[in-house]
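User: These chains co-purify. Model them together.
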Amino acid sequence: MSAGFTMLESGSVRARNASVICLKNVGLLAISGISFYLVGYTLMYGSAQIHVGDLRFLSGPSEVERSLLSGDESAIAAVLENENSTMSHWLFQMAFVASSASIVSGTLAERVRLWSFFVFVVVLTSLIYPVVGAWTWGGGWLDEMGFKDFAGSTVVHSTGGWAALAGAVVLGARRGKFNQNGSVNQTPPSNVPLATLGMFILWMGWFAFNGGSHLRLSGVIDAVAMSNIVVNTNLAACSGFVAAIALSRLVFHRVDLMVSLSGAIAGLVAVSAGPDFSGHFWAIPVGAVGGTICVMGLKLLEKCRIDDGVGAIPAHLFSGVWGTIAVGIGSGGDLLVQLTGILSVGAFVFPVSLLLWLAIGQVINVRISMDAERRGKDLVELGIQAYPEFLVLQDPEQ
Amino acid sequence: MSAGFTMLESGSVRARNASVICLKNVGLLAISGISFYLVGYTLMYGSAQIHVGDLRFLSGPSEVERSLLSGDESAIAAVLENENSTMSHWLFQMAFVASSASIVSGTLAERVRLWSFFVFVVVLTSLIYPVVGAWTWGGGWLDEMGFKDFAGSTVVHSTGGWAALAGAVVLGARRGKFNQNGSVNQTPPSNVPLATLGMFILWMGWFAFNGGSHLRLSGVIDAVAMSNIVVNTNLAACSGFVAAIALSRLVFHRVDLMVSLSGAIAGLVAVSAGPDFSGHFWAIPVGAVGGTICVMGLKLLEKCRIDDGVGAIPAHLFSGVWGTIAVGIGSGGDLLVQLTGILSVGAFVFPVSLLLWLAIGQVINVRISMDAERRGKDLVELGIQAYPEFLVLQDPEQ
Amino acid sequence: MSAGFTMLESGSVRARNASVICLKNVGLLAISGISFYLVGYTLMYGSAQIHVGDLRFLSGPSEVERSLLSGDESAIAAVLENENSTMSHWLFQMAFVASSASIVSGTLAERVRLWSFFVFVVVLTSLIYPVVGAWTWGGGWLDEMGFKDFAGSTVVHSTGGWAALAGAVVLGARRGKFNQNGSVNQTPPSNVPLATLGMFILWMGWFAFNGGSHLRLSGVIDAVAMSNIVVNTNLAACSGFVAAIALSRLVFHRVDLMVSLSGAIAGLVAVSAGPDFSGHFWAIPVGAVGGTICVMGLKLLEKCRIDDGVGAIPAHLFSGVWGTIAVGIGSGGDLLVQLTGILSVGAFVFPVSLLLWLAIGQVINVRISMDAERRGKDLVELGIQAYPEFLVLQDPEQ
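Assistant: Joint model of the three components:
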């Protein structure tokens, strides 16, 4: 998934910032891989009520797994009861937390300072995300209420989206993005095929995310259930894409490839909250509404003069909210409980992230200078260019 | 596979058309994902003799699978008899039908009108391909005759190739491709590493296509059989590549990377009709002849003044025909039956596709204008550029 | 893995050599796929003591597997004893040998002659690598001594690294790389996002390499063991990246993306010798030291005026040596035996490769001409450009 996010974001930003996006995404994978190992996973699954005193921090195989590995075959039954091994579960969850951080990277592209972003990621992946995770997948109060979020529309995508929104508010828009008269200067993606590749990788990765969220593959019933999940995932992506392309053609009179790629992602996000149904047709409206919300959300953000570098907030937050609601409508969730979940996660993640961004801003700048923005983050922060040998158009105004 | 085709095609066309190719390929994945769900799969597998009255259109889990999912454990035995779940089979077949449509996309690159292509894909994936599929994998008359096509040399690749050839005939060549005196102006690929990446993705994806076509993985004999299939697939790709590179060096005195990539694809296509043998050496001539036919086929098409944007017809159609014949020679098929299959598929797909392209042309143009071609499809159809910041060479003549 | 190496190398070299790198890597995959089938695998596993007389060259399923495939169900027990099928083992080993050859491709980038490289690869993959493999994984004398190399820190990465070092010594540095006064002219990577994508593909592929090196997946204990291996692999990559980025920031006062990507690779290489432990914390120092050694090694090579095109020698050879030693320190290997293995492999591979490069140089040039280097290998050896439509900066001095 990280590879997908990196290519999508790197292709979507301007050439002068394409390397830093790569560094940010490899960096967030490395950081979350370590912080989720040191702290996050234990916080998320160690105890649903978060008694810090209880924590054994470092993640590792369970007691019975250790017995099994050291040759005690009588431990097999106990290990089997868990249905998957602790550390394969850890790895799977780590991929989710890294995805959540990638959303923030995309929204704040082209202006966030590298080190302030990394500091934010450390806190997001070791504390903020695990708290949301503990409430839900970790068996906490939302889970006890019956909140359903199969593969992360709220836990992963809204969490990342709220954190990104907070960052966008604190950082402000890129220079030259909004004109005084309210009109918007679009920043064209520097490498369209690369962005498309990123979307494909995400699409494929989502099969693993949603299919794998079944968390078991040990018999015929699991195989059937998982195949239904993956088909629903695919249908929602298809309909999200088709909805976005149709909407952009009909309403805005322009077939917009980048918006359509976001529409497919939005369809995937929307279906993730509850892809485990066998009447596949339902996946089509879920995805199509997701795609529609994404296109509309992009316009809404522009109206609010909130600058989202790659359109991650509509695709992940808005569509994630819709997907979580949709479970309450069509796949067996309680609508009120779903809304409670959506609102509590927002009420926790958004203000905490806001405070965190402000706090980071007190210590080090959260944003690069106007001049650095003009010259590009690649040159200023890394001293390199993404495509040093290609003659790049100089943007006279910017 | 779609990601592979997209990158291969996007890297192979000129920069001014690289975005539309991306849109076309994501679009065909979305369209075929929906049309194959709504109609195609049921047509292909619902009844071998195609009684339209019988069709329950929407695809979905089988009765016994639904029972199992709703908790009826006595259904396990009946589900197990099918050896794979209905919807995982659906997903697998959907990847094939999308590949078939990708071949058409490649051949008609740089001149086909976006919407006419999408209309063609709707019909191809919901009707034309499923009819061929019903005759063969769906248990129809070719299957009853004993026609062997393990993983689609004819069903997938020739079908796509015939449809592409029909399109190439109707649309004509790109402007400036052929000179009055019969000589050919090559159009250099805009992004060679991207095209190479696409080929790698296809190569890997083929392991899943051919290995997965075994359709079972439930015991030791399946594991052994599948490993043989994948090794044969790999050997044929290797020998297809080596044959193409040697041929281009010896005959044309130039090591031609793009042709060699096509040669590897041709090797993969050739072995797909029957990769299930355990005397691996046979994979080497199958692949090498495929690679050779591909190189020769490229020249043949040029001689016929048929313009194939990325060389998809030689790699998929010509090599697919060879691979289907090869099963009759070396891996247990009946040569006469194989030829019958090849000819019937061609006799059905080519004229139907030809009529369809002509019919589409009556309603909307199938081809963009000369001026649009000069300026590039990206700018004309999408209003964007694939690489907007890179200074791109202006082609004075074109 | 080959796709990963290709993208990493193609993005790391200058634009004028980016196509040949693609050709070299597809070519080495094709060549090693054939030579390892014809000779290499049998040499490696056919007999530990290498009696050439014994060899039945062509690889293929075992006797009992052939019986099983032809319907003899009594062969199941015998096949099961091997724990994996012969040809899936073959395929897995083939991916390793191709990786080893990719290392050589990276180091010698931008100056090695295409055909001399291919000749070297034939010998490397059919003779040199299989001999090292026979000593170790094939059950030879190093294996009997108790030498531990779980997934190839020495067998794969050091072997490739020694061969690359020999080539770098024979070929000499690229023109303009080193100045008379000892200072170094860096050659900027032509496509940073592509190189990053390559690193991601390698990172993911490594999960399969190290996880798959468990060589069994047939029960709960295997699943637990494999999950531990993959988590260790991930942690080492994370810490290798973080170490490299921190070191480049603190010591060289510049966040260096390309060096950090090498650091992640170095972490992966380091942990490969022994990733099968369950106290995951140990993976962090193993990876971090790997990343550190890689950064330091880059400087050391420059001091020695050895030109390594993409920094493959520090990441694979130096870090591979460290990883093999680390098994002797922290995961159950005997330090003396580990050192014996490291030294014997070096004492065999380096001089043999050196002689081979010199011998090839006697017959055909191993290196392109200075003028060809200036114009770029793509134009000279292939007659194409990787990005023909982008205006590329002319390097006045070079």
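Residues 48-55 of chain C have pLDDT under 50 and may be disordered.
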